[in-house]
Amino acid sequence: MTHLRAAQIEDEMDGDTLHEECGVFGILGHPDAATLTALGLHALQHRGQEAAGIVTFDGTQFHTEKRMGLVGDHYTDPATLAKLPGTISIGHTRYSTTGEVALRNVQPLFAELEVGGIAIAHNGNFTNGLTLRRQIIATGAICQSTSDTEVVLHLIARSRHSSTADRFIDAIRQMEGGYSMVAMTRTKLIAARDPTGIRPLVMGELDGKPIFCSETCALDIIGAKYIRDVENGEVVICEIEADGSISIDARKPNKPQPERLCLFEYVYFARPDSVVGGRNVYVARKNMGINLAKEAPVEADVVVPVPDGGTPAAIGFAQASGIPFELGIIRNHYVGRTFIEPTQQIRAFGVKLKHSANRAMIEGKRVVLVDDSIVRGTTSLKIVQMIREAGATEVHIRVASPMIFYPDFYGIDTPDRDKLLANQHADLASMCKFIGADSLEFLSIDGLYRAVGGESRNDTRPQFTDHYFTGDYPTRLLDKNGDNPGPKLSMLASKS
Amino acid sequence: MTHLRAAQIEDEMDGDTLHEECGVFGILGHPDAATLTALGLHALQHRGQEAAGIVTFDGTQFHTEKRMGLVGDHYTDPATLAKLPGTISIGHTRYSTTGEVALRNVQPLFAELEVGGIAIAHNGNFTNGLTLRRQIIATGAICQSTSDTEVVLHLIARSRHSSTADRFIDAIRQMEGGYSMVAMTRTKLIAARDPTGIRPLVMGELDGKPIFCSETCALDIIGAKYIRDVENGEVVICEIEADGSISIDARKPNKPQPERLCLFEYVYFARPDSVVGGRNVYVARKNMGINLAKEAPVEADVVVPVPDGGTPAAIGFAQASGIPFELGIIRNHYVGRTFIEPTQQIRAFGVKLKHSANRAMIEGKRVVLVDDSIVRGTTSLKIVQMIREAGATEVHIRVASPMIFYPDFYGIDTPDRDKLLANQHADLASMCKFIGADSLEFLSIDGLYRAVGGESRNDTRPQFTDHYFTGDYPTRLLDKNGDNPGPKLSMLASKS
Amino acid sequence: MTHLRAAQIEDEMDGDTLHEECGVFGILGHPDAATLTALGLHALQHRGQEAAGIVTFDGTQFHTEKRMGLVGDHYTDPATLAKLPGTISIGHTRYSTTGEVALRNVQPLFAELEVGGIAIAHNGNFTNGLTLRRQIIATGAICQSTSDTEVVLHLIARSRHSSTADRFIDAIRQMEGGYSMVAMTRTKLIAARDPTGIRPLVMGELDGKPIFCSETCALDIIGAKYIRDVENGEVVICEIEADGSISIDARKPNKPQPERLCLFEYVYFARPDSVVGGRNVYVARKNMGINLAKEAPVEADVVVPVPDGGTPAAIGFAQASGIPFELGIIRNHYVGRTFIEPTQQIRAFGVKLKHSANRAMIEGKRVVLVDDSIVRGTTSLKIVQMIREAGATEVHIRVASPMIFYPDFYGIDTPDRDKLLANQHADLASMCKFIGADSLEFLSIDGLYRAVGGESRNDTRPQFTDHYFTGDYPTRLLDKNGDNPGPKLSMLASKS
Amino acid sequence: MTHLRAAQIEDEMDGDTLHEECGVFGILGHPDAATLTALGLHALQHRGQEAAGIVTFDGTQFHTEKRMGLVGDHYTDPATLAKLPGTISIGHTRYSTTGEVALRNVQPLFAELEVGGIAIAHNGNFTNGLTLRRQIIATGAICQSTSDTEVVLHLIARSRHSSTADRFIDAIRQMEGGYSMVAMTRTKLIAARDPTGIRPLVMGELDGKPIFCSETCALDIIGAKYIRDVENGEVVICEIEADGSISIDARKPNKPQPERLCLFEYVYFARPDSVVGGRNVYVARKNMGINLAKEAPVEADVVVPVPDGGTPAAIGFAQASGIPFELGIIRNHYVGRTFIEPTQQIRAFGVKLKHSANRAMIEGKRVVLVDDSIVRGTTSLKIVQMIREAGATEVHIRVASPMIFYPDFYGIDTPDRDKLLANQHADLASMCKFIGADSLEFLSIDGLYRAVGGESRNDTRPQFTDHYFTGDYPTRLLDKNGDNPGPKLSMLASKS
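YS: structure for the whole thing
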């Protein structure tokens, strides 16, 4: 019995949310490797709540545990950690994008290679994963999962290089897309970030031992020191030498390109206390609220965040506008798993399962609701209705990011394009009417860029990737655009 | 596998928290009785996360389901609700005060009486429960649980009155303490509140059918209308008549006394959007912060709430002081159950499992931490340490309630008296030093009274009960002070 | 996930079987009390497979564990036994006669009395249980289960006697029916058998410590010595004295009557290696087969037992007739629980899920099938069909007990009277035709009496009870025949 | 929670037993494919009780379900079968030879090939599996399990042939050892048996649709017709043609050799009602008992089988010797899983957890115990002791197979060679003394050959394989004897 990210439950029901699939963590040479990995994954839990896996190597054998549910449900009791001995460890926490919740898809994946075992975990998506899978199968490989990670394992296995590091780089050169990856062998911990740097990955250190993880909050929980971001296109290979010392070798196998971090990490995914690309996420979100207050001011009595995502921007909006910040919506944190498949009667209570209006702060007031983003708009509609029923005289919505028009192909699970609010309406007025608000405004692209990086968008060389807003994809999309789909796969489905 | 109130996890480890044991809900004559009870209990989940039970009557037979875990984990799927047919229903959600988490202690309890079946659920505690239990056993009754509710059932069964209502009142007259109770028979829904009105209980209405529940938030979730509070010492008996209409009969069997609601409902237990005793809880908490800012001002750069309990008071403190409100502590909502019995290694990470410092809002700043209350102080100590490690130049703690000196006997689970911070130190300076803060201040009793009710404490006839602060208990304490403990009970322990 | 008595599975589907509800075990003063109780219950598992419970007393507190499923699934691992400390223990294994499989009905039951705690487990049924329950409720008691054991607890609690032993005897005097009972207090182990001695109960000894259990096989497994049968109408009270010695006090509170043990213990329920009423069960069953061969001889090629119940009688039949004994039916021991609620497709395979014909021993042969008893006949019908399909030229059925005409009221769960084969057909020929056999014969009443006790039935004072065959009930049937049913109970149903 | 083959439990504790690893089943073109596969696996449950898996293809997609535990625990409820749509199905039931009970090792295994998906299940073992695995890994494949089946998948994937059938045969040509295999693609069901025919495999037919399974008992349960044995070295390819008809293509890719079926199938593994190699197993076992009575007669009062394995031979022994056959040992069928890891106290009760002496048939008698085989002898020792304690005056052991001296490499899990009774003692007298019997005799090799096939062993061309008795292995043993072990694998261990 597990709990989903509470903030997504009623959105879940309507598909009115975005999901990022994964968080990764790896550590080399530490006696408490598995425990530290469990704690790191716990701090990264907001990036995926459905399942978590850890692999360790104890000097002789690899060990793995994979579990459905929260890290804290399984990986903290002595019995489980006792099954994960060793000083090298990588871990992964995931959100399942499909109905398939089978353990066999839970990362890290492991393979026995000629040069020894290797385990890999990744966050993100390969835009040529299917193309590569078909090539591999055509030359006699067998694929036992639907995971892109398995493709990476095959590419490594097939490399003609003798060292694992060279093989890994060989594989990396063939992959396209947006990803952050950690891998481990019997002596190495390897980290890699895609050439454009779409997904984040940072390097840290604890007791002189190297750590790689998706966000800095996973360093903070264990008291590890932040060293630097893994650079876009970089592969960092850490190895325990014969004398016990650790060597670090950083390479850039691909042609250098400018970094373009995913803006949605700032808007929604990353934890507010994380530092992503050198910028504090909470500050970026508060700046979005400040810029939004400047771009789309409104006369009102209270600024109310849509919890919890909208809170930092709402604080910024309130400070910039001088309108008081109040908790006008109270969130119920005790939303259990089965609310996802409730009876029709219960489903009808929708948004109220998670949110309730705090009437004393709403009644008779002009309310500004601040949210982080709008995907389909169905949740916004229900929240506006709830606020009106609580007696608000006016309801104004301010969204701390631009309108979403395009799908993502780098690991964010987006609804079908025609389900997006922005694509269902001709103009802002129509959207506002659909949602039932008195006014509706989105932050501008430039407002967002300035909130995050201090400067407006450089249209020639954009500082970030913003394709869901603009359609400007930072890589080619081979699987999507390829004209040679090859034989249809008849992959195995396992319901349990 | 269940999830505890996330806000209590690391306190759990140290026992540094207060628990209220229960929330209750009842509805009469509604075709969706069980579904509405499940939703009501979901809204009351903050009053108890360990287990929940529902009883219904379908015109012929009583039905019950009891489950460990969150309401949303079990009571929303069609299969479970299908086992609870009928139009009368009561439910209960509980926090276990003891190590015993056995289902047999989960309420509501049921008994077959001569006049028919009766089921009862209550929130609170009887101060003469053990005394009554011994009297009952001495006259040939058998007790199969350690629950006070079983004692109520015995008193009802032994009454010489013929009507269930009269029997219920007969039982009520013998009970002392602080409690709110809902009961149901084949045709009746009965609600009762203790003579002093220590625990809250409200009456509502949906589709013309009466509802009783611990807080108004359970009415809001189902769109029910608030009618009035059940008065202190009142017993309200609702009955379905032969013609299908519902009669309501309100009685006051005990000698009238002034109401004294528990102040901790305002300080900590009730949900911020609930209206308790006619007062919005969020507003009361914000007022506590405002009064605290006046009583104990401090020069600082940011006001940081200890989430989530301290947030409303921190907003009030910030507004009153003009110091900016910022989320300087980020809370991890994904804390799983087994963190309660973690390995020693993981236990060492303590407060960080749930809280992390948001360095960008802390570093180089003078920080005011606002918390709702301090019990043992062990958590405060760790939070101060965490804030200092994040680079704060000063850390000032402001507590939005007075110092706690005395135990509760009305349903709040308090640590041993000598574990309370206020009893371990001679003065405020010593406490402040223990916690490691630059300054530490508590709200005054009068400041709290004014925040809640607008007026200072009337020392002759206090408007609320504040015994944990003052030692002024609103009832006699028979079990505690009785000099005739009787034979020692050798009650049954069941570990599973 | 538990396993039912494999021999009953496909009968289960058709209700074509008899069930006995329980086995009991108790031991006093032994350091391994819980472990020995678990082993004793394991040996008594054939008397009930659905759930098992154990209570112990550790000198200060009572402890209990109750589990659905086999004893060997739960009660043998160190963690469970560690929860059952103490030197006094009783245990119970049960078959559920109703759809209610809730743990709250699993015995032993416990109650806190004025004189201290008491736990009781029983096998059998009270013929005035409902009558007593109504009397008790009418005088102010509360009943929380539907179990007769709870009634016993109430009678004990209400007794005016001061000693538990006297109270127990007081209660026994009011109970009618067929039962064997073990009870324990803080210092005593008490055993009781009904006045007619319908259900078996034996006394044994291990390391000088007294044991009571349903059958001698529970003594054999732990290497305990058989002392004697508890006599009909006897109450045996064993107590640990202050000096650690154990006193034994045997009483006969009811008017003496001749013993009449249940013949079905010999026909079907007891384990073949048990000694019941001084007679080896296997020998009795073999004698039934021998007598059957004499009463109903047949020319045939092979004697084939219907496994496993029919095997001893088939061996006797083969030895007496000179026809070879062969395993013509092979039994599948791996029948899992869910076969009880299978898909319709699987249900259609019926008897084959458990039994298969061993064609090499059947084809072209005249077959005598020997079974222990026939209840509804639906299983016999399918087995005959299976044997014919395997190529038998003739199929003769010989049943090692008489025809069943009447229901039991002493703890055997019998189908509705009109579902019994003997009540659905005018004569033997019609039954034989229904089942599809070439001939069908039942053992005579006298043949059965001689097989068990050596002598024909004494019609004036029958040596056993044989009411299911003859309608001659050994006690009055108050609940069944009472003309004053009182108010209808609206008992609580719990599905889980 | 699952149940092991009860007959192995206490042997389990001492490793005093042989295990066969698997049973397989496949069907093509039937609308109830998954249901029939579940029933077939249920009938084959004696070949493996730890886990079972089923794969189906529904015309578009492959589906699989894999579960720990008995077939009847999982695969008969509608919900599970609903997840397995389609008309082609294969299934597998296994006994785990190692501590690894992870689901990822449960067969059938599936792989996506260039030509489409393929699923494979096998019974037996490859004597060059490790050698092949190293070759495959050396050329860039990744291995994700420790299963030989994965090696077969790789060989198929790497074949240069275009048709799956040709690829399958290509793979088969490279495998050495003893195995029976079923495989399925989108349109085909393929069966294969090793060149020597060590493991059994039969072909049947239901409603005109082909079936392959390990034993005929899996045909009997579903009412399917036995067609013929798959011949040694044969590959049978059944395919659904475009018009819905089914084509059958039988090939023999390897050089023809004489068949040598494993004698242990007759001695112990196969179900008594199965026909293996054209011979009824029960008859073979009875013949073993008859031959044993002739070879090693003894004066005694009763013949007692060690249940259940020794029963057919005991019947033969009794018939040939004229000594009465009696159930002198009663078996407890309700042995739960956790008896495998019991407390030390419970472990001490050893053989009694499953077996008890039926004193009435033992006391004062000269007893002949007939068992099917002796592996380590530790169980025999305990049984003799139990029989003596029950009062036997003499105990003679007769074993219906020869002494075991050598390990198996074809799928039977044998203890270390020096743990075998026959290797621990210089002669029969020493073994007899160790076991504590008055006499001990084993069936001769020729006696066994005549019991099974009617003729003595042809030492030039043995009719069966009997390597565990004689050391005469029917194939080369590449993995065992290879002098080039290659790099040590660091395979992944998963404890759950």
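YS: worth flagging: The first strand of chain C starts at residue 19 and ends at 20.
IM: good catch. Also Residues 52 and 334 of chain C are 21 Å apart (CA to CA).
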